[in-house]
Amino acid sequence: MKISFKILIVLLVALSMSFKYKRQSVVIINKANPNVIIILTDDQGYGDVGFNGCTDIPTPNIDRIAKNGVVFRNAYVSYSVCAPSRAGLITGRYQDRFGYSRNPLYRPFDPEIGLSLNEQMLPDLLQQSGYNTMAIGKWHLGVHEQFRPWKRGFNEFFGFLGGGHRYFPEEYIIANQDSAKNEEQSYRTKLIRNQTAVEESEYITDAFSREAVSYIERNKDQPFFLYLAYNAPHGPLQATPKYLERFTQIKDAKRRTYAAMVSAVDDGVGLILDKLQQSGLAENTIVIFLSDNGGPENVNASDNGPLRGGKGSLFEGGIRVPFAIQWPQQIKANTEYDQSIISLDIFATVAANVQGIAKPKNALDGVDLLPFLNGTKKGSPHEFLFWRQFDQKNYAVIHQSGLKELILKDTNINLYNLKTDIGEVVNVAEKNIQLLQRMEQERKKWEANTIPPAFYGLNQEEDYIKEQKLKKEN
Amino acid sequence: MKISFKILIVLLVALSMSFKYKRQSVVIINKANPNVIIILTDDQGYGDVGFNGCTDIPTPNIDRIAKNGVVFRNAYVSYSVCAPSRAGLITGRYQDRFGYSRNPLYRPFDPEIGLSLNEQMLPDLLQQSGYNTMAIGKWHLGVHEQFRPWKRGFNEFFGFLGGGHRYFPEEYIIANQDSAKNEEQSYRTKLIRNQTAVEESEYITDAFSREAVSYIERNKDQPFFLYLAYNAPHGPLQATPKYLERFTQIKDAKRRTYAAMVSAVDDGVGLILDKLQQSGLAENTIVIFLSDNGGPENVNASDNGPLRGGKGSLFEGGIRVPFAIQWPQQIKANTEYDQSIISLDIFATVAANVQGIAKPKNALDGVDLLPFLNGTKKGSPHEFLFWRQFDQKNYAVIHQSGLKELILKDTNINLYNLKTDIGEVVNVAEKNIQLLQRMEQERKKWEANTIPPAFYGLNQEEDYIKEQKLKKEN
Amino acid sequence: MKISFKILIVLLVALSMSFKYKRQSVVIINKANPNVIIILTDDQGYGDVGFNGCTDIPTPNIDRIAKNGVVFRNAYVSYSVCAPSRAGLITGRYQDRFGYSRNPLYRPFDPEIGLSLNEQMLPDLLQQSGYNTMAIGKWHLGVHEQFRPWKRGFNEFFGFLGGGHRYFPEEYIIANQDSAKNEEQSYRTKLIRNQTAVEESEYITDAFSREAVSYIERNKDQPFFLYLAYNAPHGPLQATPKYLERFTQIKDAKRRTYAAMVSAVDDGVGLILDKLQQSGLAENTIVIFLSDNGGPENVNASDNGPLRGGKGSLFEGGIRVPFAIQWPQQIKANTEYDQSIISLDIFATVAANVQGIAKPKNALDGVDLLPFLNGTKKGSPHEFLFWRQFDQKNYAVIHQSGLKELILKDTNINLYNLKTDIGEVVNVAEKNIQLLQRMEQERKKWEANTIPPAFYGLNQEEDYIKEQKLKKEN
Q1: Which of residues 389 through 418 in chain A touch C, CB cutoff 8 A?
Q2: Distance from CA of C429 to the nearest CA of B (A)
Q3: Rounded Cα distance, A416 and A429, in Å
Q4: Most exposed of A247, B129, B254, B407 (fewest Cβ within 10 Å)?
């Protein structure tokens, strides 16, 4: 009640100001609002964090988040490769609703490829509500000017725009994003600070951690939103001796380097948590840790634990990720939460817990998790979760009971009981006919509110060229 | 008895004439024989006619056929894309028996691609029995001279030879079929009247309807066979304001145009039924309405109702089609028939009900439906129906019980109970092991009497070139 | 006991000799050791031998082996195409352990493609134990110098190095293997005797039989190992009138030629068995007959009997082969053996039954079958057998109970009961959940001890070129 009254005053003041200074954006700063830090790793497997049982790569700092707050055992992302998963997370909506359902074709001169401008990103909403916002690391949501972080709600940016990057600064030989002629070159561009290419001297993961700590330092006095998207441990597998030395006991060279890369991220997480503690911000900062999709199987470096499949697949190994949140002020330490949740819930949860925030532009697919975590709400946040891989005609539906429908390559419909068969081995469709038919109905309803991909994907160069040619002819 | 005697006389007369005028083909005109009109639409979905529950596109005239006669709820075509389906229909035989089991590669200069000359088309048989015959619309059974309609039993032809066509006459800029260098150009050829390219001024669907009505008018006094193969509502999606205006309430632009195209066909069907009525021919004319395969899923315009999959698939959405027949003299109005039937039955049904007809050249796969419709025969016309997609190694078998075996992409064998699970969701193989094993045996027996495709298909240009090269080398 | 003593003496003598003549390889000749002849046919179907019920192609001589010894009804090879299957057979180890799990890309100038030099072939082990060794026919285990038969343990070689060959000597127009620029040309090279290209005048199958008989004749007085790898009845389908005339009753031209090719092999087997008999060697010669994989389905010439699928598939038709062994001294005539065995057992069986043999270099996956055949050991030689197709992500596991897990194209996991459902029609996973989960565990354990393919396969030219380019850039 008190807060609402305060907000009202602020609003009235703001309103009066808005009359005075026309055309200037109104910023309402509510200092009681929590800071938000999303730490997103890239291609890290379900089994590659200590809190999910990893034994060969210690992740004490990532584990601190889980211990300080809640660990989710059944947490999903909305796609099993990088870009669409990020698009879902940052909009709070299934990316299929706006056609961002492929890893985009790298076409530096095609201005159409990016996250639809009709969509609102979380930083945009928070910025309107007086948050300072920063993105660090990998973007992958559009390389053209109109899609860049500073056009989508971020006050600051430090990182790169493409789908991945090399880790050693001496390899950054391409002057800027616009000079990169192909995917491979985009991995070698100079990093960007805000809108300018800059020189960097540190191992990329260390650089991102450094920037994150510095950003917190600079924003102690105002609610902030930090989207820290490490490209680690995505390929290429590259690590410095500092981290490699920790894993001499791992024989396999790929796993060893991978472990070192995860360890570098973990160090960074430690620095961030320490900085929050030292600054007195820890209590009211929401820190969210997750991976953008499962570990790739073919690289043979990551580990999805007991899950079947990996990156790119709709088996659990592709979409179930390590996921933990700490927010000491609101979430009890050492919480375990077993209902199915999804990365789309991040937007909804943050939006629901920021006082005075505007209404999101579009209908959200996620839900506020807080009432479920503190016991106000019972049951499952989602009766159904949905996945679609448009090109392969693959679909998955997970029901709150833990039954998962999987349609692969337009052939069979399988039903797995994730509670008893986490490896997705046995089709139990015949025993659950009615629920399965209901899942099919719900899936079709859901799909009726999606659109096809809005652009071509990686390795669809030929289709793209064919379409361009057709356009010219007609 | 009376008729048989009459036929005898006619035969004797004919026989005597044949001695007189040698080398002249003997034509036996039995005026009691029914006229036959096949109205075939292109890519129209199972759910896109009023008699199958369509709500947004009224099809009152197509529905008249169903009301005047029999509607089939479980009617199939023998393939899920255009050309092979048409090949099955017009020969009354599984097209796999003669290698017409792909949509043909468009190779204007390769004279081998067409419906085998060893096969007999229904018009050829009817023509021999004194019918006048005409094909209107889409051909798609061979573009080279020896495969053209006038070589296969049709007295008259009006339409185009390829796999599809544009709808507005101002787009017919290619002088004739032989000038069309590729598939796309074949959509822009001038229409052909008999063997000559002609100018056309009407929307193509209206033109075909006009020709059909005119043909009936010209053939009141002699049994005729009219094969009216509308290319509507096959892509490209093109309609005139006259039809578009009827569907302003449909928001989706594609569905709106599609609806207009179906509505134009429906108007044409109305004109034909009216003309039959006015000419006193309705009683003894068999009018058959069906679509050549299911609606394509990717176009997002057609609707296969509750069926899974669409054009190109062996799920029901690809092969189960809207299907109705009227023949007031023999079939009671408002009949519903629920056993599985197939387009191959058309040839057999017509042949069985034409007095004095010759024996078909090859063994038919279809059966005469009339005894089943009027109750003379009980049970199901087909114990088993078969489908094969050679390139994908897909197969389907439907048993008279409504159980359907589906083998997709050389992987799993699924068994669906179409009576309880029309959406083909739940594999019930374990509960029906013996029947499934029998279906496998029957499938193999059936396949032993088929041959591989006799020519390359669309998008197999490379394979074609490779083979030509090999031939030259050896 | 007596034998052991004899061996001791021989060993001591050998030891003393080894001190005398340093650097000279020590050869221990134990004349009591059995001769070994492996007769391997190429792409012959499970149903294409008399002892498996073939009716249209008499194979009286191949059947003699079965009658003289044991016929295996559930005998497998370790891969469903030629080269990997041979790699498994000749090393006694799953070829996945050393990356030979594709039919190799034909790259005459890439020296990396061949069977890993870390692996030991059976002839190498036998040669060390005083055997004379010869390979006749198709090699397919590496065309470059270091991979050739004379470098892998064979004293003599007569045949060709690639994956197949034409049958008529007038077609051998390429001077030698190194001149063959592509796969097709490698089918036309001159045959090689030891290391030299030679002229040949006979139909290839007859030539190989002739050489085999001659080799036996020349090696009556010393244990020998003969690896006779007929390329028949692999394509191209070519036979001489002598054999064709036997099958005028077969209408299908392909099947007729195929039958003639099998008949030529059968004649050769007869000559070999006769020669053994005449030479008094039959009693103590192990003669093993098998095919390298199932018959190809697309050629429509071979017959896999009741089995599903064919060459290239993990259905039974791809991996279950005709298999018989005679060894009169040790195996009772007319034995039938129904437990599952695998071609990998050949190495282990031979090695276990040669007195004084060295320890194989690497751990074997096969087991000595003799104790199972003579009843000393009960139960099944293998609790589990494993197959992997790396590129397709296909797997199969067969349990001693006859239950077979099949994972195809990364989609469904099916379980078949081979004892009641040899055609692999009905998935019985739901009834055997626990065993299936155990099979999955065992499969993963097994796979943890394999490596990815060590080279590119046929039709992976593009991948190969891409990799070479990347290597150059980095």
Answers
A1: 408-409, 411-412, 414
A2: 9
A3: 8
A4: B254
CA of residue A175 relative to chain centroid, distance: 28
Contact B74, B428 (CB under 8 A): no
pLDDT tens-digit series, residues B91-124? 999 999 999 999 888 776 678 889 999 999 999 9
The backbone region for C2, taken as left when phi is positive above 0, alpha when psi lies in -120 to 50, beta otherwise, is alpha
> Is C140 designated active site?
yes
Of A423, A430, A431, Cβ closest to residue C440? A423
ipTM of the modeled complex? 0.72
φ/ψ region of B12 (left if φ > 0, alpha if ψ in -120 to 50, else beta) reads alpha
Are C367 and C381 contacting, i.e. CB atoms less than 8 angstroms apart? yes
Structural domain boundaries in chain A: 34-373, 384-448
β-pair partners for C71: C324, C336
Q: Is the pLDDT of residue B12 over 60?
A: no
CA–CA distance, C320 with C314 (Å, rounded to integer): 9
Alpha-carbon gap: A411 to the closest alpha carbon of chain B (Å): 6
CA distances to A149, B160, B212, B225 from B133, in Å? 68, 17, 12, 5
**Partner C contacted by A251 (CB < 8 A):** no
CB count in 10 Å sphere of residue B462:
9
Nearest CA in chain C to A297: C393
CB A104 within 8 A of CB A455: yes
Q: Quick one: pLDDT at residue B20?
A: 40
Which chain C residues have a beta carbon less than 8 Å from that of A409? 409, 411
Q: Answer whether A258's CB lies under 8 Å from A302's CB.
A: yes
Q: Which of C411, C413, C430 sits opposite A411 (nearest CB)?
A: C411
Q: Tell me how far the alpha carbon of residue A348 is from its chain's centroid.
A: 14
CATH T-level fold of B32-373 = Alkaline Phosphatase, subunit A (3.40.720)
What would the CATH number be for the domain defined by C33-373? 3.40.720.10
Q: Is the pLDDT of residue B19 over 60?
A: no
Asked if residues A433 and B426 have their Cβ atoms less than 8 Å apart, the reply is yes
Pick the CATH number of A34-373 from 3.30.420.240, 3.30.360.10, 3.40.720.10, 3.40.1190.20: 3.40.720.10
- Other beta carbons within 10 Å of A332: 13
Got the DSSP string for A149-169? GGGTT-SEEEEESSS---S-G
Residue C90 to residue C185: CA distance in whole angstroms: 26
DSSP B183-237: HHHHTTBPEEETTEEE---S-HHHHHHHHHHHHHHHTTTS-EEEEEE--TTSSS-
Give the class (CATH, top level) of B384-448.
alpha beta
Q: How many CB atoms lie within 10 A of CB A193?
A: 15
CA dihedral B198, B201, B204, B210 (to 10 degrees): -90
Distance of CA B327 to the CA centre of its chain: 18
| Residue of B54, B82, B165, B399 marked catalytic | B82
Interface A-B: count of C-beta contacts within 8 A: 37
| C413 contact residues in A (CB cutoff 8 A) | 425-427
| Maximum Cα interatomic distance, chain C, rounded to a whole number of Å | 68
pLDDT single digits (tens) A209-228: 999 999 999 999 999 999 99
- Work out the end-to-end distance of chain C between its first and last CA atoms, rounded to an integer number of angstroms: 63
